[in-house]
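User: Assemble these into one structure.

Assistant: Restating your components, then the assembled model:
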Amino acid sequence: MNFQFIIYFSLLVFLMGIFGIFYNRDIISVFISFQFIIISAVINFLSFSQFLYQSSLWDEIFIIFGIASIYFLMFCIICYFYLKLDLLDREALNRDFILFKVVRHDWCGEDEM
Amino acid sequence: MDFLISISEKINPLQSVMILSFAIFISSFFVMSERRAVKRFIVMLFSVSLILAFYLNIYSFVSAGNFSNVLLSFENLQMIEISIIIFCALNLIFFISTYCRDNRHFIKILSIFLFSTISAVFFVLARNFILMFVALVIFILVIFQLMTVLNSKTDRIKPYIIGFFLRPVLTVILFFFGFSLFYGATDFKDFNQVIQSEYVSNPLIALGLIIFIVAVYLYLFLFPFQGPYIRLARRNEFSSNALIWFSYFPVGIFMLMKLDGLLGFFIEKNNIYAYILLAIAFICITAAGIGAFKTNSLRRVISFLFLFFIGVFILNISMFSAGIITGPLLSWFNIGNIFLIIFSFMPIYSIFSSLEKNTNSDSIDNIRGLGRSNIYLGINLTIIFLSWIGFVHHVGPFIKYFSGTNLIQIGILKLMVLVVTAIAFIFLLINTFRIVIQFFKKPLKDVTEKIVFPRFLYIYVTFFSLVILAAAVWGLLKILNVDIGIMNFEIAGF
């Protein structure tokens, strides 16, 4: 397979992930967008290793440790989301969740509790 | 004895970690206990282990000097950073034991907290990309666990915790992607190797660096992404806020400092980065300054002022990029700024949280008349707040730089940095005097007069104000060029 094609494909997957983070309005879709970026990074690691460094061991170790730790962190947040959240909070998070939501009271004025 | 010395040499930079691990091991036998005596014993054990770790960290550097291998790097800067982390941890134990001593999971909370300290130490020590990355992820994970368990009794906070922690998750994912780009540019495994290599100007390195900066920016909740942090800070349990300010943010700042070298290289090559950084610094400082001024909630004031001081780190890098300060001086400015944050925010937050606990409100009116009803605390707090005027040390290099030169000839970038620094100082001054004036105003009700502060809080605040006074006197002697024969070192660059 062409090296250039793989890099462009990886960039496309990365951009899909970034777009998903900004566009999606529910938390599970945001997690899926995160995974697009992870997949893009893994494609980068493996293609660089294959084409430039004759399949070195270092990138494989990085991928294993990196993915294990990131997924463990995401797993903990998902568990907390499903196990500890009461129904109203879960509905609110599922329906109206934007990761980069900017509202006026976040930087000026008062935040009504 | 020789055996012990050989072990000590082998674990040279990790002596502090070993002590903390040993304390966690001992505490693991008591995690199920809910007896008050056991809780006191564990607090004592952890405090002693942190003091010992603090001592061993400095001792191992003084006795064995710099240390470096494939995984770790232990130099002057790392020693200072680890000392800061351990000092913060010691204070956080104070906060946790003050506000959570009746929690059923108190000993478990302390054990998890010590884990977070160990992972923060590993992150600072890490030289290799893998260790750095894994230590960072574990640190965020442990902080998340701590936040959830500390807030287990707080109502309606769970969506805010999730919203807050999705940002650091995105940060580590972006880090993972950034490392993959670095790997494509060179086969090297740490930042020093990348800087020294001939591939440093590779576009993949530049792209990776931009992604790292974005990731750190998101991690530190700088403008305009501060929403989840500000919302959570308003609703959090007391010790969780301290955890964010004195454990989560310092690690983010050290993360930024790890990128200083690489950032410096690209800034020297292309001036456009310097202008972008300056614009970011200006936006962060101005937004945080206005945010702190426009709110009446003490928690929000402190949260915004924290963001203000994080913006100052970017301002320091801008000063470096404009050529006003040198590389070593940049590190000293950053370290000085961290000290300023820690030594002022810790006593301030301890008093404000105590006030909030007594009045059940975090309104700024609570501190109105505090200086009249409790003169001792009022004076101490005024000293601590006025220590922020120490920010004026940023002007020192400007005076040296501009003295004897024509303002028109020095260039637009340097003038812009000067203007941004002046604006930052004005905002800080406004916010400082807004709070200090509240202390000496006539109280609205007799609220502050009824509040009885615990005795240990007096000792705690006095300690910090004495340290600040000592630093002020030392700085004054330095400016007047008086040698008192105690401090005989010069800060590089001055």
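Chain B touches chain A through 51 residues (CB under 8 Å).
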